[in-house]
Design goal:
Glutaredoxin, 9 strands, 31% helix, two-stranded antiparallel sheet, alpha+beta, seven-stranded mixed sheet, 206 residues
Amino acid sequence: MKTGKQIGFSLAILFTLVASVVAYAQPKGYNIGDAISDFRLKNIDGRTISLADYRSQKGLIVVFTSNHCPFAKAYEDRIIGLDRKFASQGYPVLAIMPNDPTAYDEDSFGNMKARAQEKSYGFAYVIDETQNVAHAFGAARTPQVYVLNQKNGQFFLEYVGTIDDNPQDSTSVQRRYVDEAVSSLLAGKPVQSPITKPIGCAINWK
């Protein structure tokens, strides 16, 4: 028998999928192979984080995420797991909160700091206050992932989409798209599935 939490999550998935079929439009943004422009965003510790700060890395896993979204919550431990697995190999996570925090208090800067501390984030968690970065990437949902590969100090987009194929049950995942993408890049191979459809909550635009 399903618990109330499982039923609620199933309804959230159903609503999202229906909304996607009825009125889903991917905003214009970066395409696979495009160079990514530098940006500067405020981290939860008050520091300003820029894309240029990661030029010593092989690449970067950029995740647009949020505190309130049930899909982002479901994927949170998997996002932490991606950073733990790949940061030491040159592909750390950079989490970006793109929502208008006035829509959901959970997404406020103060609550971002509290959440990161509670879950012991080992990566930067920055806020896109102007939403310019989300627009530049073409982000539409939370969570939505962009895997970047660094070549000669410039970052290029190699993957965009969802983390894996099962937001509800991490034990039943068949395809770990982000893991596959980063593993391929580390092996010097092309990403086999460079584009997947993100499943999550629509970004709350100002």
